[in-house]
Amino acid sequence: MPIPSGNTAGSLRLKKAGEVATTVGIGVQTLHYYERIGLLPKPQRSSANYRLYSPEVVRRVQFIRKAQILGFTLAEIRQILDLKSRGHPPCHRVIELGEKHLQKVDARLARLRDYRGAVAKSLVSWREQNSPKRRCEGEFCDLIEQLPDPAIFLTKPFDPLPD
User: Fold this and answer.
1) Around Cβ 94, how many Cβ atoms within 10 Å?
2) What is the pTM of this model?
3) Mean pLDDT of 31-60
4) Which domain does 101 fall in, by range?
């Protein structure tokens, strides 16, 4: 049922998508995406058909963003929210997921330390090889081309590790 242009339902101040996005620090399309994938309920509509969000939805989006920053995936966040909406305390699941994330972070750090060691070793070698008379060999730069495949350390510096 459309709400008149005053944007209030009872004493609650409803916000349009742009206001919510600005408040929470996300894009409007992200907000709409959260709706499409079921992280947010369908919003009320104004008489002009604008989406109108309650303060509860704003807090929910803030929770989603905070959980994402901590490394939780949208699927994991949905699990947490679903548990809560069904009246089950989600904290045990959050701890399980947090432990899994910590293991991944530790593994990633170990790989990054190995990668750092390889880069540091390469720099020492490069400095020794660098002289005013040095000719750069190779198709692009032999210093890089002579290195082992960096995929043995990681595919990209911050790629997530597989489950």
Assistant:
1) 17
2) 0.68
3) 94
4) 95-152
